[in-house]
Amino acid sequence: MNSPTPADAPRPLVFWEHRLYPGSLSRLARVRADLAADLAGFAPDLVDTVVLCASELFANGVEYTDSGRAEGGEVIRSLSLTAADTLLFSVSDSGGGGGVPAVPHGRTDDEWNEAEGRRGLLLIENLTRRWGHLRLAPWADLGTRVWAEFDVEPSGVPDGLRPYVFTR
């Protein structure tokens, strides 16, 4: 699903501190490890699914970030439990790469077999409740936020989570 960010979502039950990463694929292992640590105590299947989708979204963020600048681009990760049954993950790139995330449609079988890119959003579409994107100040090309919502079994939410989780 490609729709605007859930503006009417209530204040998160749990909000993890944002994490900032250099816009480089060499940071992907760190992104995965941080996310797995932040989601410790949640159901392993949920963690695996979120980490898999996060890998794809981070890689897309790196591709579209302004990594051509001398100082390089950045990708910001956010994570929140917006309701007892909903986990919201997002990445925001720092812009400059252009493009808008979209699931490819209308490819022939041969084109799909030869395609190297844009399959990841099909994964996102099939493993999440819904996903979407929001341009950050489109008049200034400040980047894009891509978000995905995951179903959480309320009984599987770890006890003792605080409303705001500081990351290390």
Highlighted features:
168 residues, alpha/beta, seven-stranded mixed β-sheet, Heat Shock Protein 90
Overview of this protein structure:
The chain has 168 residues and is of the alpha/beta class. The protein has one domain (2-165): Histidine kinase-like ATPase, C-terminal domain (Heat Shock Protein 90). Helix content is 27%, strand content 27%. It is built from four helices and seven strands. The chain has helices spanning 28-38, 44-64, 109-114, 120-127; strands at residues 2-3, 14-22, 74-83, 86-93, 130-135, 144-151, 164-165. Keywords: ATP-binding, Kinase, Nucleotide-binding, Serine/threonine-protein kinase, Transferase. InterPro entries: Anti-sigma-factor_SerPK, HATPase_C_sf, HATPase_dom. It holds the Pfam family HATPase_c_2.
According to CATH, the fold-level topology is Heat Shock Protein 90
Largest sheet: 7 strands, mixed
Please give the radius of gyration in angstroms.
16 Å
- Our measurement of the CA-to-CA distance between the termini, rounded to an integer number of angstroms, reads 33 Å
Number of strands: 7
What do the pLDDT scores average to? Answer: 81
